[in-house]
Amino acid sequence: MYKFKRVVSLILCFVLCFTWISPTMTAVFAEETGPFFTLSIDAETLTVEKDETITFGVTITAEAGVALRSSTISAGTLQSMFTGDEKVTVVNITNDSRTTSVYTFTLSVSGIAPGSGAITVMMPSARITAGLSEDYVIGTISVEVTGEGDPDPDSELIEPTNLTFDNPPDTVDIGSSVTFKVIAEPVGASTSVTWTSSDPSVATIDNGVATGLAEGTTTISAISITSPDVFVIHELTVRKVAVDSISISQESPLTVSLGTPVTLTVAVSPANASIKTVSWSSSDESIATVENGVVTGHKAGTATITVASTDDPSKTAILQIIVDATKPNATNISLPSSHAVNVGKSIDISALTFVSPEEADQRLIWTSSDENVATVANGVITGVAPGEVTITATSNDNPDIFAQCAVKVFGPETAVVTFSSAKQKMAEALTAAGASKENTTHIYITGVTGFAAGSRAFANADFTAIKSYTNLEKITIEESKRLTFTGSKIANGGFENMKNLKEAILPGVKGLGARAFNGCTALETVVLGKVTVIGSRSFDGCESLKSLTFNDINSPPDLEEDADFPGQDGYWFRGVSTNKVDLYVPRRTMDLFAEDDFWTAFNIHTNGDEASEPSVEESKEGTDVITIANLTGSLEKAPELSAYSATDSSKKGYETIGTLNIIGGTYALKSADCTFIRDYMEGLVELNISTDFADNTVPSSAFAGMKSLKKVKLDTPTLINAKAFSLCKNLEVVDLPSVTRINSQAFAMEKGSNDSKLHTINLPSLTFMEHRTFYYNVSLKNLILGATPPEVWKPEGKEGLWFSFVPGPVTISVPDKAAYEDFIKEENCEVIDWSSFDFVARDGAVLPEPVRAEPYDDSKYDYLREKAPKTEDYYDGDIQVGLNFYTFNVNLNAWMQNKSSPPQLTTLDTIRWAKDNGFDTVDITLYYVPGYSNTAMPSPAEQEAALAYAREIKELCAELNMPISGTGLQNNFADPSEARRKLDVERIKFWIKVAHEMGAPVIRVFSGTPPVDIGRKGWEVIARDRMVPHLQEICDYALEYYPDVQIGLQNHGDMLATANQVMKVLEWIDRPNIGIVNDTGFYKEFMQLDSSKYDWYRDISLILPYTINFQLKKKPAGAGTAALMDLERVFVDIRNSSYRGPVPLELLWVASEEGYPNDLDTPPYEETLAFLGKVRAAIAATKDMSPRCDVKAVTVPENATISGLNITAAVANSVSTIIPNITVSNNATYKIFSDAQLSQEITEISLAEGLNTNYIEVTAQNGTAKQTYTLNITRNSGSTGGGGSTGGGGSVSPTPTPTPTPDTDNGKENVISMKLEKTMDANKVVSATLSGKQLDSIKKELGSLRPNSTVHFSFNVEAPEDANAVNVTIPKGVLTELDQYKEVRLTLNTGSATVSLDEKTLGLLNMENGDITVSVDKVDAGTLSGESKQKIGDRPVYDLKINSGDKTITKFDGGSVNVSIPYTLKPNENKNAIVIYYIADDGSLQVVNNGRYNAVTKTVDFSVKHFSSYAVGYNYVAFNDLTSDWYKDAVTFIAARGITVGTGNGNFSPEQVLTRSEFLVMMMRAYGIEPDATIQDNFADAGNAYYAPYLAAAKRLGIASGGGNNMFLPDTAITRQEMFKFLYNILEYLNQLPEAKEGLTIKSFTDVNEVSDWALPALKCMVEGGITNGTGNNKLSPRANAHRATLAQIIYTLFK
After folding, report:
1. Long-range contacts of 911-918 (CB under 8 A, 24+ apart)
2. SS3 sequence, 132-194?
C-alpha cells in the first residue's frame, strides 16, 4: 500500500503571526516575514457573511535561499496549499502567476458558521526546488464570519487573552459524550479554538464534544486559533459503567422440544453498562446445551441455564429448562435428486437420505411413480423395466414433507456404476455393475455414490478400465460434487481410440487433456461442462462429430499447444468438418465464440430453448448518433431510443447505433442499463456518458466483449468493476477522469490474445487497482495517471499480473517531476516496478532516463571459490540416504486435501514406508503437516494442531528408530512487498518451532524468485539489502529460541542459481547457524531457462563445505531435462568433502514420462525404490574411489614443514641417516625416490652435510590420482663451538620446558604449566621454589604474549602422601612480570591441596617486598576441641598461610582464593551434607557456605577471603517431610550449612509460602552478609523480631528499599518476582551476578509480559544465567507466591 504524506499543522508552531493594525478594520494584513516566505494579502478587511463568498488576492514571496517551481500548479496541489476550518472554507483558487520566487493567487472563500475562522497556507515540498525538503506551513489568514446575533462586522476583532471552560465535566462514561464550552476573556473575544485530547485512545474531542472510549484519564485542550499562546486544559476521566444485574426475558421454567433450538434473550442493566458481553453454561449438557444463548435439548430431563456477565461473573441469571422428549415433526427431507439402476438390480439410497431435525421421526413412506419401471421399499430401488420413474420419500408423521429422486432404469446393455467407496477401483466397480466387455454398450456412472462422504476422482487408471470395453457406444458421467476429475479434466488419452464410442455425456468435465477423444471415429455427440481448456489433439480424427456442447461457460476455452511441438497447430479438431458441427454455448458467450477466429468455423447455437440457427455475420459498426440530454429513467425507455427495437421489424435495430452520448439527467445508470447497451448495441463504436452511475460504479462485465466499441468516455464513475471492459478487442481509447478504483481484469483480454487495440487510457484520479487490470493489453502505449502511484491488490498467494504481457514501451503521463519522483521511489516499486516505465510530465518538465541495473555478471564473485573451506580426507564409510517427502507430493496432497485420486498417502504412513523400504532418514516437508499454508499464518487452532502433529511425527520416528534429517517450507524473501516478506518471517518463526517439536535439525527455506524490480536494482542489491536481513532475522530467532534447529538455505535456480550467489549470500548473512541445502537439480545461469550447458557438478562440489542437508535429484538441471545425474561423480565429491550428513533423495515428476504419479494406481513406490537402488550402488562404488593424495604430516624429521608440494626440514650433524615417518590421505600410499624421475625407490635417506633433496610420490586410493612432493632435508655443519662436560662430577637436572607453548591469541587463556623441584626435610616438610632457569624460561614465554593477555600459571609439586606440610615459594620477579597481563591466575598443586589465587590477590601480594610463600600444613584433628572433633572426625584439616618474607598475609582485601581438598566420600555419606568449616581462633567451627563436594574430581572445593585453618566436615540434617526428589538435595545442602533449621517438629515444610523476611534472612545467611549489631536505621515495621537486624543491614546496603511509608511488610508472602529482585540485589552487591548462558532467554516464557518493569532486569538475569527455568509449561509465574522448596533449590543452584 502506498502511503500519502500528511501535513500536520500545529497552531502553536506557526512561524507567521498576523497583526491587527486598525481599530476600524476586521482584519488588516501587513507583509510579514518568516524564515522562508513572506505572505501578503491585498484586502484590508476579510469579513464574510455566513453562506456568502468573498474574493481576495494572496502573494507568497520566497526568501533568499528558497527556490520555487515555475511550472503549472495542479488543482489538487492548489487545494492542499489553502485549507479552511469549521468556520470558513476555500471554494475556488486561481493561480495568477508563478516565478521561481513569487506566486500570486486569487482566493474565493465562503463562510460556514459565525465566528473567527482561519485559512492555513502551506507550501508543498513538491513545489520547492531548493532551500527546503519538506512541506512548509507558512501561516494562517484570519477571516471573520458574521451572521445573526454576531457583532458588527466593522467592529475590531478582539483576540483572547485568557480561555476558561464553562463548568467542564470531570468524568464521562465509556461510550457516552460530554460537551466542553469555551469562555474567552475579554468579553467578545474570539472563541475559535483547536481541540485536542492527550490520549485519543481514552477519549476523543470533536468541536468540544468529548466521547469516552476506554477507562483512563486524558487531558482536553482548547488552543486559540488567533492567539496560539492562549489555551485552556482540563483533565477528563473516563469511567467504566459496571453491570448491576442481568436477566433472561423468558420465564422459568421453559419447556423446549427435543432437538429444536430456542434462542434466549438476555438484558444487562444498566443499559449503558460498558461491557455487556455474557457467557453461558448448562448444568447438564447431556440434557441441554447452550451456545451464544441458543438452547438445544438432547434428552428428557431438567437442566439449569446460567448466564453471567463477563465483566462481573458474580452477576448472573438462571433459567430452568425442561426438555420434552416428545419427538418433533419432520421439517425437511433430503435425498439424492437423481439416480440410475439396471433392470433386475437394486440400489439402496437410504444411507444418503436424511430427515431433519435428527430427533424427528426418521421413518419414511417410499413410493414409486411407476412400479412397472421401478419399485422401492425402505429406500431400496429395484429396476423392473427400462424407463424413467420418480421415487418419493414422505415423512411418516407429516405428509406435507417429502422429497423426490428421478431414477433412470436401464436394460442389460447399460452398466450403471455406483462406487462403494472413494477408493474403489473402476475395474471393480464395473464388474460389480455387471458390465460385460462383449455386451455392454453404455456405461452410466451415477452422480450418487455409495459412500456418504468424500469424493471419487477419475484418474488415468479409471479411463484405462473404461477403454477396455471396446464395444462401448455411450459413456455418461453425471455431474456431482462427489465425482471429480484429476486436474479437473479428462486425462490425457482418456477415451483415445474408442472406435465404437458415439456419445459422451460429461456435464461435470471442465477440461480435456491431450488426445482425450483422439481416434474416436464414430463419436457424434459430446456434452461437457464449464470447460476452460482443450488439450492438443482432443478431437483429432473424430470424423463423425456432429454436436458439441459447452454448458455454463463464460468464454472460449484455452487451446493448449502440443507439448512436443510448441508454437505449432495443436490439431484439436483435425479431420473434423467443423462447418458441420453444431456448437452449443450459453447465450452470454455466443458473441465471444463468434468473434474467436478458431470457433467461427463452427455452427454456433445457444444451449437454451432456441431452435433456430442464428446467423453468424461479420461485426458491423453502427452509424447512428444518439444524444440523450435528460435521462430520467431506464435507458431502454428513453424517448431518444423509441425508434429502435430488438424485435419490432418496423423499427431500426439497436445495432445501428454507432455513438451514444448521455449528457444529462437525474437518473443514475444501473447494471440493467449497461447490459442493455452491451447486449443490443452491437455496433456501438463510441460511448460518452456524463451522467451518474448507480453507486458511482460501472458494474462487473458491464461492456465486456463489445466487439465494435472503440472509444469510451465516462465522466462520473469512481469505480470500474471486474471485467467491465474485458474482451473488447477493438477498444482503443478510454477516458475515465473520476475513477479512483479499478477492479480485477477490467480491461483484460484472453490469455495469449494479441487482439487488444487499446492504446491510451486516461486515469488521472486513480488510487487503487486490482490484479490483471491490463492483462494482455498488447497495444497499450499511453497511461495518464495522477500525482501518486495507485495502490495495488492481488489475491493472497497469487501473482498480480497488472501489466502482464504488455510489451510496451508504455509511457506514463504524470502532472510534474515531483509526481515522477514519487512513482519511482523504492517503496512504491515493491509490487509494480514503476521505474521500468517511460514517463512524461504534463507541465513540460524534463524527466531523467529510466534507471537500469548493470547486467548480472557471475564471474564478479569467482574470488569466493578460492575462499571456500578446504575439505578433509576422503570418506570411505557409509552414507545415509534419506527420503524427501516431496517425492510423494501428489499423494500426500491428496491426503491433505482429502482427494480420492491419486492414491492418498499420509505423512505417518510415508515414514513407515520409508522405514520398511530401507531408507536411513526422512526429510518431512512441512507442506504435509496439517495447518500449513504457503501464504498465511496458521490460526491459533491450526498452530496447536501442527505442533501436536509434529510431536506425533517425532514419537513415531523414535519408535521406528528413524532419524529426521530436516524439514522445510516455502517463502519468498525477494518479493518487493515488505509486508509479504515480513509475513514470511513470522511464518518461518512459527514453523521453526514446529521443526523443534518434530525433532528436525534443519529447516529448509528459500531465497525467492527474481522480483519485478530485478532489472532496476540488480541481483546484488536485492539479495544483500532485501533478502539477507530477513534471513539474518530468522537465524537470530532460531539461535535464541531453538538453537537445535539450523536454517538450511536451498539453492533453487531462483535468486540462488549459482554457487557464487550461494557463497556470497552466506558471506553477507554471517550467522553460525545457517548452511545450505545442496539441491543438485537447480544450479544454472541466473535468470536463464536453458541450463543444459551449465557446469552444475562444479557448483555442487563448491557448495559442499557449506552444506548441512541435501536434495539429490534424478536430473541435474530440473525435471524437464533429458540428462540424468552422474551419481558416482556426486558421491565422489561428497566423500571428498567434509559433509557427513544424510543425502535425502527427491524425485520430481513430468507428466509425459513413465511413472508419473497421477497415472499410477499406487504412489510411485517402484520408481522411488529404483532410484534408491541406483543411489545405493553409487555409494558402494565410490567407497574405494578416493582421489586424495596429500601429505598430511611429517613426524620424522621432527621439525618438518609442509608448504604446497614442498617439505623442508633440518637435522643435527649427528644424524647421518633417516627413515621419514609420513602421514598421507586416508587409504593413499606413498613411495620415496632419490631422483626426480621417480625411478630409484628408497626407504632410508643417507644425509650429507648441507641440503639433501629427495622425492615423495603419493598415490590416491582410486589408483589414478597422484602427486609428487619435493623433500629437502638440511644436515647442519659439524662445527658448533663450546660443548663438553658440565664438570663437577654431579648431574644437572634439565630445565623443564613450559608446556604447552602459550597461545598468543589475545582472546584465549594462555596456560603455563611446570613442575617444581622439591626437597623434604626430616619433619616431612616439603619445600619447592622456582629455579633461576625456570624463571628465565617463564620470562621468555611471557615475552611472546601480547600485553593484556590472559595468563594462567600452574605450578605442580609432587609431594608424598605422608608429607606434613608443603611450602611453595614464588619469586617476587614472577609477580612483577605478571602485572602487565589483564587476567592472571596462579594455581599451586601441592598434593595435599590445590590453591588458586585470583588477579586481585596476586596484585595485593605484588605490593609486598619479598618473595611469596604459600604453605599448606596438615593439622592433627586430635588437637581440636571436643565438639569440633566430633563434627570433623578423621576428615582432613589444613592450616593455610601466605607469607611475604617474615610477614603473614591473612586477608586479601577484595581478592579471593579457591581451595580444593582431596576427599573420598565415606559409605552412606550424602555429598550435599559435606561442608567446609573455618576453625576460628577460639576453636569454634563456622561453615563456609560456598563449600561443596565435587564428585568428579573427588575434592571439596571452596573459596575464601582470608587464610586460616579449614576442615572437611559432615552435617546431615534429616527432615520428615521431604517427599519430592526435585528439592531433597537442595534442602539437604542448605540445612547442612545452617542456612535453614526447618520449621519445627523435624519438618522443613517445603510447600509453605515464604514471607519476605524469611527469604531475605536465609539469603543473607547463605552469603554470609552479617546482620547489623547496632541498628541505626530500619524499616518502620521491622519491630524487635529476629529478622530486624537483617532488615537493617539490607536497608543500609541497598538490598531492600521497602515500599511506601518506610514499610517492608516482613510477614507478607513473597512473590517470585520479589524473590528474584532481592536475590539480584544481593548478588549485585557482592559483584556475583551470573553471566548469561548461550541458548537461554527470558523471551521463551509465555508469561514474560506479566513481569513488572521493576523486576524484569532481575528475572532476565536469573533466567539467562541459568538460576531458574520457571515453573513448567514455559511459565515464570512472576506473581505467584514463592515456597520454601523454591528458595532451597535456588540456593543449591547458586552454590553447587
Report:
1. 911/953, 911/956, 911/957, 911/960, 911/962, 912/956, 912/960, 913/1165, 914/883, 914/962, 915/960, 915/962, 917/1165, 917/1169, 917/1172, 918/1172, 918/1176
2. CCCCEEEEEEEEEEECCCCCCCCCCCCCCCEEEECCCCCEEEECCEEECCEEEECCCCCCCEE
What is the per-residue pLDDT for 1292?
28
Q: How far apart are CA 52 and CA 72, in angstroms?
A: 29
Residues 6 or more apart whose Cβ sits within 8 Å of residue 864: 1060, 1063, 1064, 1067
Sign of CA dihedral 1274, 1275, 1278, 1282: positive
Strands 1107-1111 and 782-784: unpaired
Reply yes or no on whether the pLDDT at 609 is more than 50: no
* Pairing between β-strand 1412-1418 and β-strand 1365-1370 as defined by DSSP bridges: antiparallel
pLDDT band with cut points at 50, 70 and 90 for residue 785: very high
C-alpha cell at 1023: 539479495
Q: Report d(CA 1487, CA 1476) in Å as an integer.
A: 6
Amino acid letter at 1571?
Answer: P
Three-class HEC string of 1364-1393: CEEEEEECHHHHHHHCCCCEEEEEEECCCC
- Highest mean pLDDT among 634-643, 677-686, 982-991 belongs to 982-991
Q: How far apart are the first and last CA of the chain?
A: 58
Would you say residue 389 has pLDDT above 90?
A: yes
The residue written with cell numbers 563448491 in the block is: 1102
Q: Is the dihedral of CA 1651, 1657, 1658, 1660 positive or negative?
A: positive
- Residues in contact with 169: Cβ distance below 8 Å, sequence separation at least 6, in sequence order: 178, 179, 180, 210, 236
Among 178, 169, 147, smallest CA distance to 51 is for 147
C-alpha cell at position 1187: 582421489
**Mean residue pLDDT across the chain:** 84
Res 868: pLDDT: 65
Higher-scoring residue by pLDDT: 1152, 810: 810
Strand order in the sheet with 1350-1356: 1309-1315, 1350-1356, 1383-1389, 1394-1397, 1457-1462, 1499-1504, 1492-1494
On the question of pLDDT at 610 being above 50, the answer is no
Query: How far, in whole angstroms, is CA 928 from its chain's centroid?
Result: 18
Scanning 1502-1587, the segments in alpha helix (DSSP H) are 1525-1536, 1556-1566
Amino acid 8: pLDDT: 28
Grid cell, residue 1614, equals 513473597
Q: How many residues does the chain have?
A: 1696
| Of 1341, 1344, 1354, the residue nearest 1384 (C-alpha) | 1354
- Alpha carbon 387 to chain centroid, angstroms: 61
- Give the rounded distance of the alpha carbon of 1470 from its chain centre: 51
* Under 8 Å between Cβ of 987 and 971: yes
Model confidence pLDDT, tens digit, residues 955-967: 999 999 999 999 9
**Model confidence, pTM:** 0.39
State which amino acid sits at residue 383: G
Q: Report how far apart, in Å, the C-alpha atoms of 116 and of each of 120, 147, 222 are.
A: 13, 12, 15
Output 1054 or 1093, whichever has higher pLDDT.
1054
Cβ neighbours of residue 1050 under 8 Å, at least 6 residues apart? 968, 1004, 1005, 1006, 1056, 1076, 1077, 1079, 1082, 1111
Q: How far, in Å, are 713, 951, 1173, 1305, 1380 from residue 1184 at the CA level?
A: 79, 41, 19, 41, 56
Grid coordinates standing for 445? 456412472
Q: pLDDT tens across 1575-1587, in order?
A: 888 988 888 888 9
* Burial state string for 878-906 with b = 16 or more CB within 10 A and e = fewer than 16: ebebbbbbbbbbbbbebbbeebbbbbbbe
Name 1009's Cβ contacts closer than 8 Å, sequence gap at least 6: 972, 974, 1054, 1055
DSSP 8-state assignment for residue 751: T
pLDDT of residue 1303: 38
